[in-house]
Amino acid sequence: MRGSIHSMETLSGTDGPGIRTVVFMQGCPLRCQYCHNPDTWKAGELSISTSELMQKLNRYKPYYGKDGGITLSGGEPFMQAEFAGSLLRLAKENNINTAVDTSGYFLNDYVKTALEFTDLVLLDIKHTDSNSYKQLTGTDISQSIKFLDYIKRIQKPVWIRQVILPNINDTDEQIIKLTHLIKGANIKKVELLPYHTLGVYKWGKLGLDYPLKNILPPTEEIMARLNKIINSFMLDEYMI
Predict the structure, then answer these.
(1) What pLDDT score does 239 carry?
(2) Which helix (H) or strand (E) holds 125?
(3) 39-124-201 Cα angle (round to 5)
(4) What angle do CA 15, 28, 7 make, to 5 degrees?
(5) What is the DSSP string of 176-209?
(6) Rounded to an integer, what is the distance from CA 134 to the centroid of its chain?
(7) What gap in Å lies between CA 194 and CA 182, rounded to an integer?
(8) Hey, which residues does 70 pair with through a beta bridge?
């Protein structure tokens, strides 16, 4: 089984628990206005087999420790769901913890099989309002809702993520709606990530016009206020 990847990042501490190797896969159906990896949107030319990739990932196994492992990111990993599932299965055979960072756009038999070998889903919910979601990503929110409903049903452990963009999804009402949406999932963590502009230069290199050039990162006060809502929700639901 061969697939297309963009790159790998070793010793990551932000893409799941512990120290992880992140595999950035090519291809994504979303066109998020704040995407920091627009160079992963289209299918890439770097083709690699699951066995070759597994050899690379095993090199870093001593660093993973008790909690670390590998995370498939992108792009959208489940755009290559059969390849992703094959790689995740090999990782589990090698006793490596697995995580997938996904928008939840895809849900088919290949995705469901891949989830069987996934220890943790990092689900990025871009927005809770259907019209705003479409404006922000170019796609329909219903796809992600179906995925969320499925991982609720199978009680797959999940980290919920949302990038906070001023004047787009930074209101108390939007975050409260997010808590209602994710209620019932097997949530291990909710991460509200402040919007940043670190990937803007890639848009320029690709000849793309960056649509959020006038948006600044949220203030610490905004993030603290929204995180207070999330912390209250997690305390009420999961008593963490």
Answers:
(1) 56
(2) none
(3) 30
(4) 50
(5) HHHHHHHTTS-EEEEEEEE---TTHHHHHHTTPP
(6) 18
(7) 20
(8) 21, 98
Amino acid at site 88: L
Alpha-carbon gap, residue 74 to 81, rounded angstroms: 12
Spatial contact of 55 and 104, defined as CB atoms under 8 Å apart: no
What's the whole-model pTM score? 0.95
Interatomic CA distance for residues 145 and 64, integer angstroms: 32
Q: Which domain holds residue 114?
A: 2-238
19: which 2 tokens? 């120290």
Chain-centroid distance of CA 212 in Å reads 20
Gyration radius (Cα) of the chain, Å: 17
Residues 6+ apart with CB under 8 A from 158: 120, 121, 122, 123, 151, 185, 186, 187, 188
Q: How many whole angstroms separate alpha carbon 124 and alpha carbon 162?
A: 6
Name the domain count of the chain: 1
CATH code where residue 87 lies: 3.20.20.70
Nearest CA among 230, 182, 191, 168 for reference residue 32: 168
Task: List the chain residues with pLDDT less than 70.
Answer: 45, 238-240
